[in-house]
Amino acid sequence: MDQEWNANQPIYRQLHDRIIAMILDRVLNEGDPLPSVRSVAAEYRVNPLTVLKAYQQLADENLVEKRRGVGTFINSGAHANLLAAERQRFLSEEWPIIAATIQRLGLSPQDLLTSAEEQ
Asked: What is the tens place of the pLDDT at every residue in 7-32?
């Protein structure tokens, strides 16, 4: 995980979002343990309560399961649930802006495909 923090967003939320990105990118897989609260706090020099809050938010969203005395683990189905939610968010929030820009610039589907192939 990157150690740079954005001053415009609480650190617990940034930790939460980084873990979600790691699940979506399959860096963390279903059944994998999350690092201990203490190790994350020490590595990133943040208060353990900050890490605990991020982990609790993930648990509240049913993405992870806390097992007393054992640790916190990625739940089965977490990747699929996050992927579905992220796709829906993209289509409802980002795509309308992108589609409007494409239309405003007069880009054709072929222009977009050609550009994507050149990447």
From this structure: 899 999 999 999 999 999 999 999 99
State which CATH number among 1.10.10.10, 3.40.50.620, 3.40.920.10, 3.30.450.40 fits the domain covering 11-76: 1.10.10.10
Distances (CA, A) of 2 to 19, 28, 50, 106: 11, 15, 16, 38
Please state, in angstroms and as integers, the Cα–Cα distance from residue 38 to each residue in 4, 49, 107, following that order.
19, 9, 51
Length of the chain: 119
CB 36 within 8 A of CB 1: no
